[in-house]
UniProtKB/TrEMBL annotation:
One of its GO terms (molecular function) is ATP binding. Keywords: ATP-binding, Nucleotide-binding, Transcription, Transcription regulation. GO terms for biological process: regulation of DNA-templated transcription. This is Sigma-54 factor interaction domain-containing protein. InterPro entries: AAA_lid_NorR, P-loop_NTPase, Sigma_54_int, Sigma_54_int_dom_CS. It comes from Fodinibius salipaludis. It comes from the Bacteria. The keyword Heme does not apply.
Length: 276
């Protein structure tokens, strides 16, 4: 099953904390579906651009699942070499200071909770196949604990790598072995209605964290600039831009000049000014 705007139907009200994160119907609909999925125990693939909130969705699934009292363990799949893979994913017996110690594996640390394979699409095909083969053998056998420790898997995929992966033979294997539900997360530029509410939430968050930011706000022009920017780094980039604005405005009114200069490149007024 693929969750996207086309597969969604009208649902009941969302929990308040989620409702106040988004105004776009697109995201509200996706969250309705995500909350339903959380209650099932299927494996999940979350596909989206960098910084678009994949991990945030995975945590919401965890919080609303029957595994919520067990750990949410995240394994970062970028730049994983043989040693990282052995030590941090599977773990092994280790001889340290004359003692044989057990290095805990990602799987054991998950303890039957949710194992989030962060940016799984960046993992070397060799390790991807190794994980899939292990699932084939029966994931329980990977445990030193008992078979109630099987994790629910949530895999995140970067949009670009995902497109490459769909053309490879691994993709078929992955679908067959994991039988996952796929969540397609839209980039921020396709749900611009969410930008003002996200900015507002970030400002409130920074106000709470810093006593000196009691008066923090954003000017209409800066808000307009944010609304018109394409945000290739999505929510993370937006958050960082507002943080920079908060710092450069000394916790007062964030103006356009306080936002990262790179944003100016695709602002309409800048392009017009550059015309001769
Ligand atoms: N709904 C939201 N409201 C507020 N902040 C959010 C929301 N979703 C994500 N964020 C923030 O945006 C940043 C990026 O989110 P997250 O790590 O979930 O994205 P990602 O898609 O998993 O990133 P990556 O592609 O790097 O793995 C984090 O700082 C996170 O706290």
């Amino acid at each position: 099953m693929i969750v996207s705007k086309n597969t969604l139907k009208t649902q009941n009200a969302l929990p308040k904390d989620i409702e106040k994160s988004f105004t776009s119907l697109l995201m509200q609909d996706i969250y309705h579906k995500v909350l339903q999925l959380a209650k099932l125990d299927s494996n999940i693939l979350i596909i989206g651009e960098i910084g678009s909130g994949k991990k945030n969705i995975a945590k919401i699934i965890h919080q609303n699942s029957k595994r919520s009292t067990k750990p949410f363990y995240s394994f970062y799949c970028v730049d994983v070499n043989e040693d990282d893979y052995q030590d941090n994913f599977w773990g092994h017996l280790n001889f340290e200071e004359r003692q044989l110690t057990l290095k805990y594996k990602a799987l054991e640390q998950t303890q039957g909770g949710i194992l989030y394979l962060d940016q799984f699409s960046e993992l070397s095909p060799k390790y991807m196949l190794n994980i899939l083969a292990s699932i084939d053998k029966g994931i329980n056998q990977l445990y030193r604990l008992d078979n109630t420790s099987s994790p629910r898997l949530i895999l995140s995929f970067n949009q670009e790598s995902y497109q490459d992966l769909t053309n490879s033979s691994i993709w078929e294997k992955l679908l067959v072995k994991l039988d996952p539900v796929v969540i397609m997360l839209p980039p921020l530029r396709e749900r611009k209605e969410d930008i003002p509410i996200l900015i507002n939430n970030f400002i409130e968050e920074f106000k709470e964290q810093n006593e000196g930011y009691k008066n923090l706000n954003i000017s209409p022009q800066a808000l307009y600039n944010c609304f018109n920017y394409s945000w290739p780094g999505n929510i993370r980039q937006l958050k960082n831009a507002i943080l920079q604005g908060a710092i450069l405005s000394f916790g007062e009114t964030i103006k356009s000049e306080h936002l990262p200069f790179t944003m100016n490149w695709d602002l309409p007024y800048k392009l017009n000014n550059n015309k001769i």
